[in-house]
Amino acid sequence: SAVISQKPSRDICQRGTSLTIQCQVDSQVTMMFWYRQQPGQSLTLIATANQGSEATYESGFVIDKFPISRPNLTFSTLTVSNMSPEDSSIYLCSVRSPSASYEQYFGPGTRLTVT
Amino acid sequence: GQNIDQPTEMTATEGAIVQINCTYQTSGFNGLFWYQQHAGEAPTFLSYNVLDGLEEKGRFSSFLSRSKGYSYLLLKELQMKDSASYLCAVLGPGLIFGTGTRLQVFP
């Protein structure tokens, strides 16, 4: 399995500011994913981040709002830009297992509150 | 488009058996997952089905019918700690999740 850490674990931010969330994995992985989980809801895929290429965004999510970096095979960042209260959510990083191609593991999440 | 449906909430009694259903309509299919998520925690992997049939893993079993776009998660000998949300997800490049089913187990 892969061990995933995220920073920060939680934050309270003001409307109009930006927050960058970091995701660190203890092994090299090709595919990393960012998800959002709004209060009481299921998970929604924001984008797929592969090292060496531009992130691929799902419908409803755009690069200007959620820029992603993937500088190497163990690290990624997601920025939530120009935040509004509707962005209050848990943001989770996820990776596909390097050994079992179908297993996907999740980080502990970053709980963001926008005031 | 993608559409994955699950019941919103279910309740059951400790020691009983519960079946959580999931129906899906997706543009592609590379397998179906079930995850468990306790409140305030990240989802944890339970099962993966890519072929039709039943996969058994201890108290948990998962069934898939690709022709019907249908899966279920079967939980046996329910314990209080099984109270959680259960998420059905279809594999594309990333996972597309259903709405989730909140299961409450009562003594």
Explain what the structure shows:
- The complex is a heterodimer of chains A (115) and B (107).
- Chain A has 115 residues and is mainly β.
- Chain A is 0% helix and 51% strand.
- Chain A has strands at 4-7, 10-13, 19-25, 31-37, 43-50, 56-57, 68-72, 75-80, 89-96, 104-106, 110-114.
- In chain A, a hairpin with a 7-residue loop joins strand 9 and strand 10.
- In chain A, 35% of the residues are buried.
- Chain B is mostly beta strands and 107 residues long.
- Chain B contains no helices and eleven strands.
- Chain B has strands spanning 3-5, 9-13, 18-25, 32-37, 44-49, 53-57, 60-65, 70-75, 84-91, 95-97, 101-106.
- In chain B, the strands form two sheets. In chain B, strands 2, 4, 5, 9, 10 and 11 form a six-stranded mixed β-sheet that branches. In chain B, strands 1-3-8-7-6 form a five-stranded antiparallel β-sheet, with no helix packed on it.
- The model of chain B has no long low-confidence stretch (mean pLDDT 93).
- The A-B interface holds A 31, 33, 35, 41-45, 48, 56, 58, 92, 94, 102-109 and B 31, 33, 41-45, 48, 50, 85, 87, 89, 91, 93-100.
Low-confidence stretches of chain B: none
Question: Percent of residues of chain A in helical segments?
Answer: under 10%
- CA radius of gyration of chain A is 13 Å
Main interface pair? Answer: A-B, 21 and 21 residues
Distance between the termini of chain B: 41 Å
Present the secondary structure layout.
The complex is a heterodimer of chains A (115) and B (107).
Chain A (H helix, E strand, L loop, with lengths): L3 E4 L2 E4 L5 E7 L5 E7 L5 E8 L5 E2 L10 E5 L2 E6 L8 E8 L7 E3 L3 E5 L1
Parallel strand pairs in A: 2-11
Antiparallel strand pairs in A: 1-3, 3-8, 4-5, 4-9, 5-6, 7-8, 9-10, 9-11
Chain B lengths: L2 E3 L3 E5 L4 E8 L6 E6 L6 E6 L3 E5 L2 E6 L4 E6 L8 E8 L3 E3 L3 E6 L1
Parallel strand pairs in B: 2-11
Antiparallel strand pairs in B: 1-3, 3-8, 4-5, 4-9, 6-7, 7-8, 9-10, 9-11
